[in-house]
Write a structure and sequence with these properties.
Layout: E1 2-6, E2 9-13, H1 21-28, E3 47-50, E4 53-56, E5 69-71, H2 84-91, H3 101-114, H4 120-126, H5 137-152
Parallel strand pairs: 1-5
Antiparallel strand pairs: 1-2, 3-4, 3-5
Helix pairs in contact: 2-5
InterPro entries: 2Fe-2S-bd, 2Fe-2S-bd_dom_sf, 2Fe-2S_ferredoxin-like_sf, 2Fe-2S_ferredoxin-type, 2Fe2S_fd_BS, Beta-grasp_dom_sf, Diverse_Oxidoreductases
Domain 2Fe-2S ferredoxin-type: 1-76
Protein name: (2Fe-2S)-binding protein
Length: 164
């Protein structure tokens, strides 16, 4: 049994201490944005934020996050009021199948929290641990750039004319 704080709400969970956080999120708490991809921390589909750091929840035992603040995609915004990053992904139509997108968004969110003035190179480097076969890579990059510009207060968030 462990007490974890997810999206600002403390939860007491029944899972054994070595249970991957991903299983607790999905099976006990019914927070299904983080996905099971590889189960080895190699694809990024399970990424969540723990105290500002993007981590792979599929290889993180729940005991390691006890007493720490965990944020999932569900904690960024709502359908009615999406976060700046979520709105940017919507505006750029950055999701195709959507399986890897929650993980990418969480890693991008952690990056933007650390550095809202992020460069395109830093965005690309940050997303390297993520695998996506859909081919919306340029839209994903534009969405993160759009969110960064929005957070910086710039009027023209992207400055591109077309979509890929």
């Amino acid at each position: 049994m462990a007490t974890v704080t997810i999206n600002g709400t403390p939860h007491t969970v029944e899972a054994a201490p070595d249970t991957p956080l991903l299983y607790v999120l999905r099976n006990e708490l019914k927070l299904n944005a983080a996905k099971f991809g590889c189960g080895l921390g190699q694809c990024g589909a399970c990424t969540v934020i723990v105290e500002g750091e993007a981590i792979f929840s599929c290889i993180t035992p729940v005991e390691l996050v006890e007493g720490r603040a965990v944020t999932t995609l569900e904690g960024l915004g709502t359908r009615e009021k999406p976060s700046a990053l979520q709105q940017a992904f919507i505006d750029e139509q950055a999701a195709q199948c959507g399986y890897c997108i929650p993980g990418m968004m969480m890693r991008a969110q952690a990056l933007l929290q650390r550095n809202p003035q992020v460069s395109d190179r830093q965005i690309r480097e940050e997303l390297e641990p993520h695998l996506c076969r859909c081919g919306t890579h340029m839209r994903i990059l534009r969405a993160i750039r759009r969110a960064a510009n929005h957070l910086a207060g710039q009027a023209n968030p992207v400055g591109t004319g077309g979509r890929s």
